[in-house]
Amino acid sequence: MKIFLDTADIEEIRTAARWGVLDGVTTNPTLYAKVGGSYDDILKQVCKITPGPVSAECVSDDVDGMLEEGRHYATLAPNIVVKVAMSENGLEAISRFAEEGIKTNCTLIFTTNQGLLAAKAGASLISPFVGRLDDVGEDGMELIQEIVSIYENYDFETKVLVASVRHPIHIVQSAQLGADVATMPFKVLEQLFKHPLTDVGLERFLADWKKTGKSFED
Ligand code: E4P
Asked: Fewer CB within 10 Å, N or C, the chain?
């Protein structure tokens, strides 16, 4: 399963890239609003740091506006993926982008049928929001299971990108269900490699090594 960071913060992206685990990045207007500056410049920098897909979100709600924005984003770097919100106009824009060879990520997916339509329209990726479903008392991971199995039934090429991730269990379940990608905040990525027993174990190994009085060169 690929690991994407859900952020527009360049330092977080650089750090994850140094760890060797970063496969791509998703941004959205909320994440961009946290860092500010030029969205184009941020996208160009992110696309240089990660060779994987970088989602840039359209903010128009009419088809022509989405097409204009998406075509512009696609000129910024070869790894740009245009993020389009699920809607009637969004589906039309996605199918037009597919004809033009521009990759898309259909976002704000909350039902299995939305996932089915996005794949039929030609989305490269879809983003079902598991955390926001959990927040309203639904089971976000059930949606992932349904969409993954339907895509397998019909050999859709559209990839399932689990979004709105809140904690490490979402990541384990996404991988168990065969999701293609999970995008997560930096805080969740950090939580993936941390465990108190690892910290205690390492502390003990280092203390015991020190007791031997040896140095690495001995
Ligand atoms: C990613 O593409 C989504 O925009 C993001 O995961 C939404 O997460 P949130 O529900 O935490 O805002």
From this structure: C
pLDDT digits (tens, 9 = 90+) for 101-141: 999 999 999 999 999 999 999 999 999 999 999 999 999 99
DSSP state of 158: P
CA gap 34, 52 in Å, rounded: 23
Measured from the Cα of 132, ligand 1's closest atom is: 10
In the chain, the DSSP E strands lie at 2-6, 24-26, 54-57, 80-85, 104-109, 125-128, 159-162, 181-184
Distance between Cα 25 and ligand 1 center (Å): 12
How far the first Cα of the chain sits from its last, in Å, is 42
Q: Which of 15, 8, 9 lies closest to 190, judged by CA?
A: 15
- Nearest CA residue ID for atom 5, ligand 1: 164
Per the CB < 8 A criterion, the answer to whether 96 and 63 are in contact is yes
Active site residue 159: no
- What's residue 26's pLDDT? 98
Residue 105 CA, closest ligand 1 atom number: 2
User: Which pLDDT belongs to residue 176?
Assistant: 98
The protein residue whose alpha carbon is closest to atom 10 in ligand 1 is: 164
**Catalytic residue chosen out of the listed positions 44, 83, 187, 214:** 83
pLDDT tens for 65-83 read: 999 999 999 999 999 999 9
Provide the whole-model pTM: 0.95
